[in-house]
Amino acid sequence: MTLLELKQVTKEYPLRLRRGNIKKKVAVKNVSFAISKGECLALVGESGSGKSTIAKCIMRIEKITSGKVLWKGHNIHTKELKDFTLYKNIQMVMQDSSASLHPKMCIKEILAEPIRNFFPDERDWLEECIKLLHLVGLDKSHLKYFPNQLSGGQKQRVCIAKALAVKPELIIFDESIASLDSNSQKSILEILKRIQIQDGLSYLFITHDLQSTKQFCDRVAVMYQGEIVESFTYWEREQLTHPYSQLLFDTMNNSNTSF
Ligand SMILES: Nc1ncnc2c1ncn2[C@@H]1O[C@H](COP(=O)(O)OP(=O)(O)OP(=O)(O)O)[C@@H](O)[C@H]1O
Questions:
Q1: Domain ABC transporter, which positions (predicted)?
Q2: N or C, which end of the chain is more exposed by having fewer CB within 10 Å?
Q3: What are 26-51's pLDDT values in tens digits?
Q4: What is the C-alpha R_g of the chain?
Q5: From the CA of 144, how far away is ligand 1's center (Å)?
Q6: Assessment of whether the complete model's pTM goes beyond 0.80
Q7: Average pLDDT across the chain, whole number
Q8: How does DSSP assign 2-60, residue by residue?
Q9: Is any atom of ligand 1 closer than 6 Å to the C-beta of 53?
């Protein structure tokens, strides 16, 4: 079953030049892909290739210039899909956990907020918060902490727990684990994989690091200068046709990082 579908999506940003002139910056060009239930798709590409712009267009943070973004066949960029439905179904975890967590709220309040918003009848919300913490490798002792009392890895786990609290069908990870050390990355990816298999969750995993997608993602789409230039499932160098994906692959094989 297809959950999310992008059809020929183009996003241009207006760039103000001197003397009031406006130029268009094409950030994303004719991008099409689909994500099925339970699937994890990686969107890999260098800095500035348009990955975050795609995430913002899916989350309605940015308007698209042309094309369509569909959730179960409903157009995300029309009133057809209400905010509540969109954010109940799709959650996003950003790279900067500090910006995503309210500094004056403790972890209990941070996790309780989405539960109360999306499940107002939930009585055992505290139990639910503790369950969420366990899911991401933390425990109830963390409930009383404020974000600035946690490490970067712990904050990122809270952000993931906050996204999971909504019980969405799809989570977008935008470079969400990039700033963590390789052990923390490995542990979070294992947790996410387990949840994906258990609950049939789908992921869009945005990264510039091809290596981190190898064990975790079912399919990889490679972005280059705003376009998807290659999409692959099997990790065979011979199958890659675009020079940029070949370069990514070779760089990965020459690096010592292992996941
Ligand atoms: N609000 C904006 N106004 C103008 N140009 C923008 C804006 N946001 C992004 N861009 C441009 O669009 C292009 C794509 O940016 P985007 O952030 O989507 O890339 P990215 O692949 O996510 O990069 P990174 O991996 O560094 O986060 C870049 O050239 C960027 O400068």
A1: 4-250
A2: N
A3: 999 999 999 999 999 999 998 999 99
A4: 19
A5: 37
A6: yes
A7: 91
A8: EEEEEEEEEEEEEEE-GGG-EEEEEEEEEEEEEEETT-EEEEEE-TTSSHHHHHHHHTT
A9: yes
Mutate to test the pocket of ligand 1, among 11, 22, 47, 53 (most ligand atoms within 8 A of CB): 53
Domains of the chain: 2-95+170-254 (3.40.50.300)
Mark residue 47 as left, alpha or beta (left: phi above 0; alpha: psi -120 to 50; beta: remaining). Answer: beta
Count Cβ atoms within 10 A of the Cβ of residue 68 and give its class: 0-12 exposed, 13-18 middle, 19 or more buried: middle
Residue 27 Cβ contacting ligand 1 at under 6 Å? yes
Ligand 1 proximity of 51 Cβ (cutoff 6 Å): yes
What pLDDT was estimated at residue 16?
Answer: 83
Name the residue with the closest Cα to ligand 1, atom 3. 13
Question: How many Å lie between the centroid of ligand 1 and the Cα of residue 122?
Answer: 39
Does residue 205 have a pLDDT over 60?
yes
